[in-house]
């Protein structure tokens, strides 16, 4: 009998409603801290962004300091540089004395000043006076002899400066426009004296300066 009832139970299960399954509150409503995680991620990215901004600011400051330092030292380096031509062909590596006027007053000119004079010569005079020649008037070069025979002579610093401030014909009779005028607004007194010193030193020392054999 017991066996028969078991078979009947398997064949015809009870219609009684099954026991309801209690939902797992942890599975239906997981306590996952999404807002806290977002806040944490945002905080991490904000921290990294601030670090990058600080690094960029420091790098920018270093660049500005380098540029300011380099630009401030560049003129000094250029001023201390001796032009190759001054040292190689004029043989000037130490200050040299040049006559300023007919009274015999002398002034020392450093190799750096002569280098500046050479640069000024290239910027203002070389179109007509390449190698000490005078292209508009080949008979009147910048050789030492021609400078001495001018009226008045131009073989001293002050006399050559006077000529460059107000160019005159070779005999001194009238103004000339063949030579470029160099007023104080264009070249300072120190600059034009350096230019004159370069011309006179080249006339005295440079092989072939102002001659046909240049």
Overview of the structural elements:
The structure is a single chain. The chain has 214 residues and is mostly helical. It has nine helices and two strands, in the order ααααββααααα. A hairpin with a 6-residue loop joins strand 1 (96-99) and strand 2. The longest helix has 47 residues, at 34-80. It is elongated.
Which features would summarize this protein structure in a list?
single chain; 214 residues; mainly alpha
Mind sketching the topology for me?
Layout (H helix, E strand, L loop, with lengths): L1 H10 L13 H4 L5 H47 L3 H5 L7 E4 L6 E4 L1 H14 L1 H4 L14 H6 L7 H9 L23 H17 L9
Antiparallel strand pairs: 1-2
Helix pairs in contact: 5-9, 8-9
Q: Could you name the ranges where pLDDT drops below 50 across 5 or more consecutive residues?
A: 25-29, 70-78
Order of SSEs: HHHHEEHHHHH
> What is the helix content?
40-55%
Shape: elongated
Number of helices: 9
How would a textbook summarize the main sheet? 2 strands, antiparallel
Overall number of strands: 2
Overall residue-averaged pLDDT value:
81
Radius of gyration: 46 Å
Q: Within the largest sheet, what's the order of strands?
A: 1-2
Distance between the termini: 142 Å
Structural class: mainly alpha
Beta-strand percent range: under 5%
């Amino acid at each position: 009998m017991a066996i028969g009832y078991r078979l009947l139970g398997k064949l015809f299960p009870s219609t009684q409603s099954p026991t309801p399954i209690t939902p797992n509150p942890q599975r239906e409503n997981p306590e996952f801290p999404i807002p806290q995680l977002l806040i944490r991620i945002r905080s991490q990215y904000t921290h990294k962004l601030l670090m990058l901004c600080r690094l960029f600011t420091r790098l920018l400051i270093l660049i500005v300091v380098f540029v300011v330092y380099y630009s401030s030292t560049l003129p000094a380096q250029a001023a201390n540089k001796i032009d190759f031509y001054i040292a190689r062909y004029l043989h000037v590596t130490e200050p040299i004395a040049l006559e300023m006027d007919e009274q015999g007053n002398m002034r020392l000119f450093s190799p750096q000043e002569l280098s500046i004079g050479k640069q000024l010569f290239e910027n203002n005079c070389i179109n007509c006076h390449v190698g000490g020649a005078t292209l508009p008037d080949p008979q009147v070069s910048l050789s030492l002899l021609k400078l001495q025979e001018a009226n008045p002579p131009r073989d001293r610093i002050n006399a050559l400066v006077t000529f460059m401030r107000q160019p005159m014909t070779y005999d001194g009779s009238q103004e000339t426009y063949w030579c470029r005028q160099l007023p104080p607004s264009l070249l300072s007194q120190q600059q034009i004296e350096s230019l004159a010193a370069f011309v006179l030193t080249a006339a005295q020392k440079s092989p072939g300066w102002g001659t046909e054999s240049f």
